[in-house]
Amino acid sequence: MAPMTRSRSDNKGNVATALTAEYYAQRATAGLLITEGTFVSSKAVGFINVPAIYTEAQIEGWKLVTEAVHKQDGKIFAQLWHVGRLSHPDLHNGELPHAPSAINPHSQAYTQNGFVDTVTPKEMTIEDIQQTIRDFKNAAANAVKAGFDGVELHTANGYLFHQFFTGCSNQRTDEYGGSIENRARILFETLDALKGVIDHNRVGVRFNPSAHNLFGIFVDELTIPTFEYIIRKLNDYGLAYIHLTEPFTDVTNVPFAVKEVAKHFRPMYNGTLIINKGFNKESATKVIEESYADLVAFGVPFLANPDLVKRLERDAPLNTPDPKTFYTTGTVGYTDYPALTM
Ligand SMILES: Cc1cc2nc3c(=O)[nH]c(=O)nc-3n(C[C@H](O)[C@H](O)[C@H](O)COP(=O)(O)O)c2cc1C
Question: Taking Cα atoms as reference points, which of 147, 72, 149, 76 lies closest to residue 339?
């Protein structure tokens, strides 16, 4: 199951609850559940009501989730998240969000006041970057304490790491900007830091290489070579997997974008490759048979079908997802999608 923000932690400490546990346990037949993005620190926050993973109470909340999933013999990784500039001062006591460079993504953040326009963020100092790396290390240690089977670094969809990888959001002139190696540096420093708290064979990394005109990100001539460099280098890291998404929008006419992500990157990576975005049983079977991926992640189909695996096995009809309740609070559109009765 692909990571999906569901915003049900509308409690004071943004803690995962028994309801969160019920939602994931309902879906435990997935070979691997990847949680919604969970914030690694208060500075990482970019949405309200997201269960985070930097306080003791939050660790206790996630324990409910991992125990419920393990009881059903499921496996679950926590997706570790920092939104960078895709945030707003309303979520940071009036302070600016952090980003590689002071460039407004001209996007929106979801705050206690609803959707609000993003602002020009603060350019991170070297110390801010080092602190962020420590925050990821701490969050990974917290994930282990909470009983997760592993963690996935959210380095996709225009959030902090993606902002470092891409020229439109990173115009730094120090060792974290400019060359491909410099744009990628924060990821490898984070992976090195994680070594102290979790084996790399329990760490996955997620990328959306052809994201374009989305999340404030634009593909340029260095974007795909940057992902190629990163993915090749990850061969040396012995990760659990890399998790790629096909383009979220039609990039047929976008110069420099890769149109078929799995096909493009498969030859560069020796380890386990998960592919995601828009798959159904037929296309998922095909991509595996063609050896462009080892595993397929399903997002929205899993959101609306707690027993997706059974339904795919039986070619049973699927429930219809209701986008109006993707990010609302409570049980409606969360834990009330029906399972097959037989
Ligand atoms: C409600 C919702 C929330 C999402 N939240 C996240 C998230 O927290 N982290 C992430 O990496 N992707 C997130 N995504 C993207 C999904 O993981 C996935 O890439 C997308 O839904 C496409 O896959 P699908 O066609 O199988 O649904 C989200 C998608 C949806 C629909």
Answer: 72
- Tens-digit pLDDT profile for residues 176-235: 999 999 999 999 999 999 999 999 999 999 999 999 999 999 999 999 999 999 999 999
248 pocket-lining for ligand 1 (C-beta < 6 Å)? no
Contact indicator for 271, 235 with CB cutoff of 8 Å: yes
Told to judge if 159 belongs to the known catalytic residues of this protein, a careful annotator would answer yes
Nearest-CA residue for atom 31 of ligand 1: 300
Atom of ligand 1 nearest to the CA of 298: 26
Q: Is 2 in the pocket of ligand 1 (CB under 6 A)?
A: yes
- CA gap 192, 11 in Å, rounded: 34
Q: 134 near 196, Cβ under 8 Å?
A: no
| Cβ 300 under 6 angstroms from ligand 1 | yes
Helices assigned H by DSSP within 290-338? 300-304, 308-314
| DSSP string covering 256-270 | T--S-HHHHHGGG--
Phi, psi of 82 (to 5 degrees): -140, 125
Long-range contacts of 288-292 (CB under 8 A, 24+ apart): 291/266, 292/262, 292/263, 292/266
Q: Determine if ligand 1 sits within 6 Å of the CB of residue 3.
A: yes
Which of these, 60, 67, 55, lies nearest to 21 by C-alpha position?
67
Element (H, E) at 22: helix 18-26
Q: Which of 5, 283, 287 to mutate to test the pocket of ligand 1 (most atoms within 8 A of CB)?
A: 5
Hey, which of 1, 4, 47, 309 would you mutate to test ligand 1's pocket, going by the most ligand atoms within 8 Å of its Cβ? 4
Question: Pick the catalytic residue: 159, 176, 229, 241?
Answer: 159
How, if at all, do strands 273-276 and 114-117 pair?
A: unpaired
Quickly count: other Cβ atoms within 10 Å of residue 317's Cβ.
9
Spell 162-184 as b/e; 16+ CB within 10 A means b.
bbbbbbbbbebeeebbeebebbb
Over the stretch 297-323, which tens digit does the pLDDT of each residue have?
A: 999 999 999 999 999 999 999 999 999
User: 145: CA distance to ligand 1 center in Å?
Assistant: 26
